Each structure stands twice: as C-alpha cells, then as structure tokens.
Amino acid sequence: MNNEAVSLGHAKVTGNGIFFKGHYYSTAEAIKGRWFEHAGWIGGWPVIVVYNPGNLVSIFIVNERDQSLIKCDSINPQSEYGEKLERYFQSIQLLQKERLTRPRRKTSRARQQRRGKQSLRMRELIEEVQKNIINHKGTHSIPDC
User: CA nearest 70: which of 52, 42, 41, 47?
Assistant: First the structure.
C-alpha cells in the first residue's frame, strides 16, 4: 500500500461478498475458505479493513492471526470475474435450497426400523426373564436372539 493515505474501517463478510462502503469485494482466500457460504448460513461476521479513501477498487482485510493483509478486489458485476462470482453465489444458494428441501435418506428410516425391532426384541427378552424369575424356575435361561 505504498505511501498513500490509508484508513481503518469495518466491513462485513456476507453471503454475497465482503461488504464495505456500499461495495462488495472478494478474494481468492475467501472463496477457497468458503467464507461466503458460511456467512450465508450464520449471517456474516465483521472484519477490520485497511483502505485508501480515494481508491476503493481494492481493500485489505487485517488477518487477526498474524496481522498480515489480505487484498480484496471490488466485484464489478459487469466484469468476467464478477459474472463468475455471481454464478458461484447463485450455485451456492441453489445448493442450500436443495439441501433444505431434500427428503431424508431412506437409510435413515431403515435404520430407525431396525432399531425399533431391536428394541422390541429387547423388551420381549426382558419380559421372558421376568416371567422366569417370577415363576421361580430352577434354571434361568435367556432365549437366543
């Protein structure tokens, strides 16, 4: 960031990008880390940015772990990059909708049915043991499963 005048500010990571002063920004690190997808799920989170007030084409997120700067470029919907990013966001949103409306897996129901049968068999075994104890039979055997 050369010798230009810089300022600190707060941006928000959202499902549509990093929002700062009315513009959206993105970075390869955010895409690789699936920041925007996570922000869509949890509602986003604030980040500290360093920027040049006279040039908002790029901003820099302050990495809180090591105090390094992560360059973020403005998303221009008319650019090729902006169009690709827009398609990415749309595909993420579509996948989220599909995930929410998808019926539960059949294996889950089958597993529940097996558990129910196992539970019923266990109750039957317990009742059989109780009957044997109540009848004071000399030998108590548990039936085979």
Answer: 47
